[in-house]
Amino acid sequence: MQFSVIIPVFNRPYELDELLMSLSNQTFKQFEVIIVEDGSTLKSDRVVGKYTDRLNINYFEKANSGPGLSRNAGAELAQYEWLIFFDSDCIIPESYLENVVRFLSSYNTDAYGGPDAALPGFTTIQKAINYSMTSFFTTGGIRGGKKSIDKFHPRSFNLGVTKKAFKAVGGYGKMRFGEDIDFSLRLINSGFKTALITDAYVYHKRRSTFRQFFKQVYNSGIARINLHLLHPGSLKLVHSLPACFVVGMAAMVLLSVISPLFLLTPVVYSIVIFIDSLKISKSFNVALYSIAASWIQLTGYGTGFLSAVWKRLILNKGEFKAFEKKFYD
Questions:
Q1: What is the pTM of this model?
Q2: Domains of the chain, first to last
Q3: Low-confidence residues of the chain, pLDDT below 50?
Q4: DSSP secondary structure of 35-82
């Protein structure tokens, strides 16, 4: 069993360095690495050069098109049966590929995804964001946790797929946001099997500031409505919960003019987040920042979702994207 690891990168040589270091430490060695430089002005060629004697690595540049089409470009060069996609802001545990091989040797699947985690060396903000993006109390656990209220779909920060399945669905589409869910939906709708490998986790840095995080989740809210129009029936109740959160919490604030008791709802929610994050992280600071990260995650996604509902479903406007020029930020 051999793998082609494909990594799109844009102005992130410092991140790529850590990712390639982690890949060079894999206990399973039968893989190649394909780096796709997506129109970067801050290139990664020198970083790649550090690993040419430790990894079977192929590096090439192309005009900027976003990570989805860059993954397609990398897949065109892949030699092996299994394609694995990582984001450049990931660090891979040394037993990752060994765990994947063990799973794939026992279970028949066409694609898999894995969860993400935070390293002790991550910043407090990064740990808080990791909590908010994986917690049952914010996302319903749909991003690879053990508890989930929606069917798991592999996501491209940590996704493996057979070359046969990848080519059968035409690879990634042109969406700049939500392209991984579009890809997963097309796989499932075409009859291919997907699986969650719980011990094939990666350390995912995500965004380094709350401002960047808000941009990311706002665009994700927009993408969910775009995905609904591309894939009727894909929109589930869980996807609308952040929008309900925004409306509900706004109502609580307005009603607090009548009675301050209405403010108990956001206060209690914040306390629940704090206690749950403290239990997981064992850090007061991370738990405190998790409150902010969770509110940003829900309000960002919820307002993006509501904006798309208004413009796309009610006003019937064409597809739109926010912060497109800042896609990687």
A1: 0.88
A2: 3-123+148-206 (3.90.550.10), 213-326 (no CATH)
A3: 144, 147-150, 326, 328-329
A4: EEEES-SS--HHHHHTTTTTS-EEEEEE----HHHHHHHHHHT--SSE
